[in-house]
């Protein structure tokens, strides 16, 4: 069965996103139509569904092309996704230096996700020279915009103090905000702080949340950290995190 969508039925980006959650196949046709008619939000969304294979056959090279079209028209998330494609080699050869260029453009224009992604390259020296001061500044800017993953990394800088004065109280607050914002790494970081404070019941709650949302690599590393915990209730999570990592690995 195919769905026919008339020209007058072209939807906005917000409407297309809502349709995508309900009916990916029907939404993909609507997105294709809107993108072809020049709706920039639809062009960026088309890149995303092609990248993910959501409602349409996966095609990373074509996804890259649509991200490029939308980015050329000023769509900041599409610019960020161009960076992601070049960083990870989706539809092109991996090139962190090119990724950094795209992230920088979108970050300078105010996109929190691009600030986070560019800061990650700066912190690790991929595609650019290591610059912890600039990475810290970008994490802080993104965190202040409400970006939960950046909140966690800002907390880490403030906890460890490699390029700024250590401020455990400020680190704790950013970990809390990251955890409450839904970032599984922030939830894990906040759980560690709570465990150190002896608030084991609260730590267990956040460890449960991090377990539910964590990805494969995070769970593997976290399980090793948890194995060294002194409290038996915290240490018990080590095997649970590893089992969940094994489950994700089997379905990858």
Structure description:
The chain has 252 residues and is mostly helical. Helix 7 runs antiparallel to helix 8 and helix 8 crosses helix 9. It is globular, with a radius of gyration of 21 Å.
User: What's the number of helices?
Assistant: 15
* Beta-strand share of residues: under 5%
Kindly report how far apart the N and C termini lie: 30 Å
Q: For the CA atoms, what is the radius of gyration?
A: 21 Å
Largest sheet: none
Low-confidence stretches: 1-8
Overall, the morphology is: globular
Count of individual beta strands:
0
Write a brief structural summary:
With 252 residues, this protein is mainly alpha-helical. The protein contains 15 helices and no strands.
């Amino acid at each position: 069965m195919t769905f026919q969508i008339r020209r007058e039925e072209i939807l906005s980006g917000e409407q297309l996103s809502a349709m995508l959650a309900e009916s990916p196949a029907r939404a993909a046709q609507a997105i294709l139509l809107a993108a072809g008619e020049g709706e920039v939000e639809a062009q960026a969304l088309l890149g995303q569904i092609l990248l993910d294979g959501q409602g349409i056959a996966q095609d990373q090279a074509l996804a890259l092309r649509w991200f490029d079209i939308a980015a050329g028209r000023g769509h900041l998330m599409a610019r960020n996704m161009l960076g992601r494609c070049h960083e990870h080699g989706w539809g092109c050869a991996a090139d962190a230096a090119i990724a950094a260029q795209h992230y920088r453009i979108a970050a300078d224009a105010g996109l929190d996700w691009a600030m986070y992604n560019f800061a990650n390259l700066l912190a690790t020296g991929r595609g650019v020279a290591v610059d912890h001061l600039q990475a810290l500044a970008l994490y802080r800017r993104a965190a202040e915009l409400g970006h939960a993953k950046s909140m966690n990394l800002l907390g880490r800088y403030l906890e460890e103090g490699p390029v700024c004065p250590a401020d455990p109280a400020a680190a704790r607050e950013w970990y809390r905000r990251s955890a409450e914002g839904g970032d599984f790494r922030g939830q894990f970081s906040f759980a560690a702080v709570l465990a150190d404070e002896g608030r084991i019941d609260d730590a267990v709650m956040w460890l449960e949340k991090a377990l539910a949302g964590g990805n494969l690599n995070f769970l593997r590393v976290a399980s090793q950290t948890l194995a060294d915990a002194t409290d038996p209730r915290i240490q018990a999570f080590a095997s649970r995190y590893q089992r969940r990592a094994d489950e994700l690995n089997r379905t990858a």
